[in-house]
Design a protein that fits this description.
about 75% helix, mainly alpha
Length: about 70
């Protein structure tokens, strides 16, 4: 479970960095990292969407911040 959460978090961080570069410069870093392969880029975006859903599920069900005050 810990490895899965780490991988999902890294996916979302990479997606956030690529989105930030695109927002500030107009250069599509994700498309460049996928060697301009649209299918590979869409596959990565699909994996990131599942990662985001998993992260929300973990936060709602496992409540990791329940004891913090």
């Amino acid at each position: 479970m810990r490895l899965t959460c780490t991988i999902c978090t890294l996916n979302l961080i990479i997606l956030g960095i690529c989105g930030g570069v695109f927002a500030f410069t107009g250069f599509n870093l994700l498309h460049f990292l996928c060697f301009y392969n649209t299918t590979a880029m869409r596959c990565f975006l699909a994996v990131c969407s599942v990662s985001a859903l998993f992260e929300v599920y973990v936060l709602l069900v496992l409540k990791p911040f329940k004891g913090l005050k």
